[in-house]
Specification:
The chain is α/β, with parallel strands linked by helices. It contains 16 helices and 14 strands. Keywords: Glycosidase, Hydrolase, NAD.
Length: 398
C-alpha cells in the first residue's frame, strides 16, 4: 500500500484549478508532482500554488505526454476540455497510471469503445469523477432503494438544469470549450450528473443495463437572446447561430423495464436543479421540493402535498447513507457541498490500495455515450437508437 500518491494535474482551467486549490492540495496523502495545460500562464500559476504549500515545485509542461513519460507518477487528474478526456485517459492507462477523469459527454461511440478496450488491454483503472454520485441526498435515496423502502423502482429522472449563458457567451475571453460545443453540436452534452446516481440505484452494469434511448431538442433561441441583451458589441458572436437546443429531453429504457428521463436545460433563465427523482411501488423522492412520499405514511397528503414539501430532513437520521454519517461527524470538506472531497478520497484510496475504482471504465463509457447517442437520435428526428453493452454481456453477473 502506498502512503503517498504522486499526482499529475492535466487541464488547469476553472475546474482543474479549482480542484487543485480546493481539494488536491489539502489532501495529506497526495503530492502534486506535475501540472499541465495548453496555456503556459495556467501551468505557471498552478506550479506557483503547489510550491506555496511547501511541496517541491512540480514539473510543468504543455504536453500531457511528457507527464505520462515521467515514470514515477501514480495517477493523473484530467480536467481538460471534454474532447480531450478520452485521449488523455487512454494514454494514462497505457502508461500504467491511474486516471481520474472529469465529467462530460462522448463525441462518438467509437471513443467509448476505445476507453473500454484500453482498460481491458492494460487492466489499469480509470474512474469517471462523477461527484453527484456522492451527493448527500443521492446517497440517502440510494440507501433507501437498496433497503427496499421505495419498493420496486419503476422510473427515475434527473437533469443538468443550470443557467450557463454567461459562461458560454464569454467562452472566447475565458478560453472555455463550452462555447464551440454549443455552436456546433445539438445533444445531451452533459449527461453524467443525472445518469450517475440513477445508474447506481438501477444497478446499471451490475445486473441491469440501459438498452435504448430517444432524444428531442427544442429550438435554440436562448443564447441569441442573451448575447443580444448582454454582449451585443461582439458582432461575430451576435451573428452566430447556435446548434444546441435550449431544452434537450432524453428518454432511456432499461433491460428490466425501468425508464429514465434526463433533461439538459442550460441556455434559458432558470434556477439551478438536478431534478433528481426516483419513483417506486412504495414511494418516491423528488429534489425539486426536497420531499419523500411513502405509501401508507403520507397517503392523507396526496391531494395537499404542499403541507409535506421539504420533509427530507425527517428521514435523515434513519436513512442517511453511512458514508455521509461518518463524513458529517468528521467534518465536511471541499467543493460542491462536500461531494468533490468524497469522490477524490475514494479515487486516491483506490490508487493507494492498488484496487479497482468505485466508478469504473464501464460506467464511464455507458454514461458518456448518452451524448453521442442523443446527437444521433435528435438528428434523426427523435428516432430510437440502441445503447451498446460496453461490458459485452458481463453486466448480467457483475
Amino acid at each position: 500500500m502506498k502512503n503517498k500518491v504522486r499526482v499529475g494535474m492535466i487541464g488547469l482551467g476553472a475546474r482543474g484549478m479549482g480542484l487543485l486549490m480546493g481539494i488536491v492540495l489539502h489532501m495529506e496523502d497526495v503530492e502534486v508532482v506535475a501540472v499541465c495545460d495548453l496555456y503556459q500562464d495556467r501551468c505557471d500559476q498552478a506550479a506557483d500554488r503547489v510550491a506555496e504549500t511547501g511541496m517541491p515545485r512540480p514539473f510543468a509542461t504543455r504536453d500531457y505526454r511528457e507527464v505520462m513519460a515521467m515514470g514515477d507518477i501514480d495517477a493523473v487528474v484530467i480536467g481538460a476540455s471534454w474532447s480531450d478526456h478520452t485521449e488523455i485517459a487512454i494514454a494514462a492507462m497505457e502508461a500504467g497510471i491511474y486516471a481520474a477523469c472529469e465529467v462530460g459527454g462522448a463525441y462518438s461511440i467509437q471513443e467509448c469503445w476505445k476507453l473500454v478496450e484500453a482498460y481491458e488491454r492494460t487492466r489499469v483503472p480509470c474512474m469517471i469523477m462523477e461527484n453527484c454520485c456522492y451527493g448527500r441526498d443521492e446517497m440517502m435515496v440510494l440507501n433507501m432503494a437498496k433497503q427496499g423502502i421505495l419498493g420496486d423502482i419503476v422510473h427515475c429522472a434527473g437533469g443538468y438544469r443550470h443557467d450557463l449563458r454567461e459562461e458560454i457567451a464569454f467562452g472566447k475571453e475565458n478560453r472555455h470549450y463550452r462555447l464551440n460545443n454549443y455552436i456546433h453540436r445539438n445533444c445531451e452534452n452533459y449527461p453524467t450528473h443525472e445518469i450517475g446516481p440513477i445508474a447506481k440505484i438501477l444497478n446499471i452494469n451490475h445486473g441491469n443495463r440501459m438498452v435504448s434511448l430517444v432524444s428531442m431538442a427544442s429550438k435554440a433561441k436562448g443564447m441569441q437572446a442573451y448575447i443580444r441583451n448582454h454582449k451585443s458589441e461582439d458582432s461575430e458572436l451576435a451573428q452566430t447561430e447556435f446548434m444546441q437546443g435550449d431544452i434537450v429531453t432524453t428518454l432511456i429504457k432499461c433491460a428490466h423495464g425501468e425508464t429514465i428521463t434526463i433533461t439538459l436545460d442550460t441556455t434559458l433563465p432558470r434556477y439551478y436543479s438536478r431534478g433528481f427523482t426516483v419513483q417506486g411501488t412504495q414511494g418516491m423522492y423528488t429534489e425539486d421540493n426536497h420531499s419523500i412520499y411513502l405509501d401508507g405514511t403520507h397517503d392523507a397528503f396526496h391531494m395537499n402535498w404542499k403541507e409535506q414539501w421539504g420533509n427530507v430532513e425527517q428521514f435523515r437520521e434513519q436513512y442517511d447513507h453511512p458514508v455521509w454519517k461518518k463524513y458529517i461527524q468528521e467534518g465536511v470538506k471541499g467543493g460542491h457541498d462536500g461531494m468533490d472531497w468524497l469522490v477524490f478520497s475514494d479515487f486516491f484510496e483506490s490508487v493507494k490500495q492498488g484496487t479497482e475504482t468505485p466508478l469504473d471504465v464501464y460506467d464511464m463509457a455507458a454514461w458518456m455515450s448518452i451524448s453521442a447517442l442523443s446527437e444521433e437520435s435528435i438528428a434523426l428526428g427523435g428516432h430510437p437508437v440502441s445503447i451498446p453493452d460496453f461490458t459485452n454481456g458481463k453486466w448480467v453477473n457483475r
